[in-house]
Amino acid sequence: MKKLSEHGINVIKKFEGLRLKAYQDVAGVWTIGYGSTLYHDGKPVKSGDKLAEETQADALFHSTLKTYIDAVNKLVGVSLNQNQFDALVSFTYNLGTGALQKSTLLRKLNASDYIAAADQFLLWNKITDPHSGKKVVCNTLTVRRRQERELFLKPIKQ
Predict the structure, then answer these.
(1) Catalytic site includes residue 16
(2) pTM of the prediction?
(3) Nearest alpha carbon to residue 42 among 25, 64, 58
(4) Which terminal residue of the chain, N or C, has fewer Cβ atoms less than 10 Å from its own Cβ?
């Protein structure tokens, strides 16, 4: 079982940012802390929710992370270096386990086609516009997916 590195934790925190008051993300989903949409007890974040301090956000973040770390460990059937694992957990944290499970990225990765899998990150930069219901490119996700791809492809220094 691989674990998320400190660098991986920092990557996700940087992408998600810290917000102690609940907000709607770019897709209109209620979110709090470092991108959590559910609390420890499984209840969804809702409008008006607040966390008292960063330590609460941190505890929620680590609780939320476990689901995504477990999913990557379970779904990926090939060996990963730490950067690849960290990039996949970031991707899954943002999109959910179902997205990873059904993705061409995972299929290509499990076929040991690491380069083709890396290129798949770039395709996951769209959101459903809450007003029109159409899929639109999100610049924030474009940047995130490029950086996740770069991390995935970055060799581990010996």
Answers:
(1) yes
(2) 0.94
(3) 64
(4) C
